[in-house]
């Protein structure tokens, strides 16, 4: 199955990184231009538009483009809301994770083959994750535990209900 595909506006940069970590194929202003037209063009090509701009959201709907409106910048709320209607898994599957910076799929690399990774990481990890495109490396460090906590909170909010999503 194809990864869930989105195009996300400039106000929701943190959400872009999160969706990529969760395995979604996400275009944002860094890959596109910053104009509404650029975002809409990507959405017309088969992506769901996620925006915090009311007028852009309404324009998308008038044109029959699939769109979701996110009112605030709170990532936990956004993930809770979006996962109700979109195929966004609230768990990290490293075989699906994409580079948060550039949206490219990551490859798993034995740590001894990694270049430029701190010694501490070499000692503690068997695998790291490399972006084939921008060459950034990632590993499941202390940040990973913080991310798991965010996802647990998002799951709780999804089941208790939040209501600033218009669809
Ligand atoms: Zn990358």
CA-based gyration radius: 17 Å
Strand content range: 15-25%
Distance between the termini: 24 Å
In the residues, how many domains can be counted?
Answer: 2
For the record, the CATH architecture of the largest domain stands as 3-Layer(aba) Sandwich
**Number of distinct beta strands:** 8
Heteromolecules bound: zinc ion
Helical element count? 6
At the first level of CATH, the class of the largest domain is: Alpha Beta
The major pleated sheet works out as:
5 strands, mixed
Strand order of the largest sheet: 2-1-3-4-8
Which stretches are poorly predicted, pLDDT < 50 over at least 5 residues?
A: none
Question: Which sequence of SSEs, written as H and E, runs from N to C?
Answer: EHEHEHEHEHEEHE
Roughly what percent helix? 25-40%
Find the CATH topology of the largest domain.
Answer: Rossmann fold
